[in-house]
């Protein structure tokens, strides 16, 4: 009887996480030179969250600290880095148009978009593989819609020391009306055209951003 009672009992353990007492701020005073002997233009330093104007983690700080943040490969051209971060979840990310000179290039662009989306899935500890989105449809954050347009000029897929891997990327905030005017798609196919394919579902109501990535070659666009 005791064993039966023990077998039927279920223990429930509640867990929660307290807010961090620390935040990180971008230090641009070159103060690290006095301690390390090396000139560091900007770095993230830990400060009490109670004295910080904006509470953020180390990775968030690094993304906006310095002239180029965590951009890699390090850009050699002009960079204008915003100090704002946009929160979104995988279902808010959509490739809305692909401009490619051949079907092979278009297919490879779609493939790296799929790889990027799976990287987002892998950030969730509940991800079990097989490309199944582990994020809830009702997340605890108020995410933004992220629309991406990708353009590639050359159909050459050769990768060697002479390959032009340059790219440009621009990010613009858009209103709900501007976003709804863009056709929404998760995949574009077909050569020598910019395709916009409408996806099922209603237009997004929340404002978000539109990202334009262009590259001389597929490999340049992939960096963007």
Report on this structure.
- Helices cover 23% and strands 21% of the residues.
- By secondary structure, the chain is α/β, with parallel strands linked by helices.
- The protein has a five-stranded mixed sheet.
- The model is unreliable at 1-6 and 183-205 (pLDDT under 50).
* Global outline: globular
Q: Strand-residue fraction?
A: 15-25%
Helical stretch tally:
6
Radius of gyration, CA atoms, in whole angstroms: 22 Å
Major beta sheet, strand line-up: 5-7-4-3-6
Largest sheet: 5 strands, mixed
Number of strands: 7
The N- and C-terminal alpha carbons lie at a distance of 65 Å
Instruction: Briefly note the structural class of the backbone.
Output: alpha/beta
Q: Write the element-wise H/E pattern from the N-terminal end onward.
A: HEHEHEHEEHEEH
| Percent range of helical residues | 10-25%
Low-confidence spans: 1-6, 183-205
Mean pLDDT: 79
Topology summary:
Elements: H1 2-8, E1 22-27, H2 32-36, E2 43-48, H3 58-64, E3 93-100, H4 103-122, E4 145-152, E5 167-174, H5 176-181, E6 193-195, E7 208-215, H6 218-223
Parallel strand pairs: 3-4, 4-7
Antiparallel strand pairs: 1-2, 3-6, 5-7
């Amino acid at each position: 009887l005791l064993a039966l009672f023990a077998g039927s009992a279920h223990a429930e353990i509640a867990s929660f996480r307290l807010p961090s007492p620390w935040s990180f701020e971008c230090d641009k005073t070159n103060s690290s030179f006095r301690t390390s002997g090396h000139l560091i233009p900007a770095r993230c330093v830990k400060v009490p969250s109670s004295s910080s104007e904006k509470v953020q983690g180390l990775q968030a700080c690094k993304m906006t600290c310095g002239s180029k943040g965590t951009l890699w490969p390090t850009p050699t051209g002009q960079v204008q880095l915003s100090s704002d971060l946009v929160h979104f979840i995988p279902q808010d990310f959509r490739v809305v148009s692909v401009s490619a000179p051949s079907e092979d290039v278009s297919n490879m662009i779609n493939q790296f978009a799929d790889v990027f989306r799976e990287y987002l899935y892998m950030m969730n500890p509940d991800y079990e593989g097989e490309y199944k989105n582990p994020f809830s449809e009702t997340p605890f954050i108020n995410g933004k819609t992220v629309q991406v347009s990708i353009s590639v000029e050359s159909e050459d897929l050769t990768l060697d020391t002479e390959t032009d891997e340059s790219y440009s990327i621009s990010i613009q905030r858009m209103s709900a009306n501007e976003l709804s005017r863009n056709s929404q798609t998760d995949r574009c196919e077909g050569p020598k055209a910019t395709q916009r394919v409408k996806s099922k579902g209603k237009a997004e109501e929340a404002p978000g951003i539109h990202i334009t990535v262009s590259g001389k070659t597929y490999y340049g666009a992939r960096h963007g």
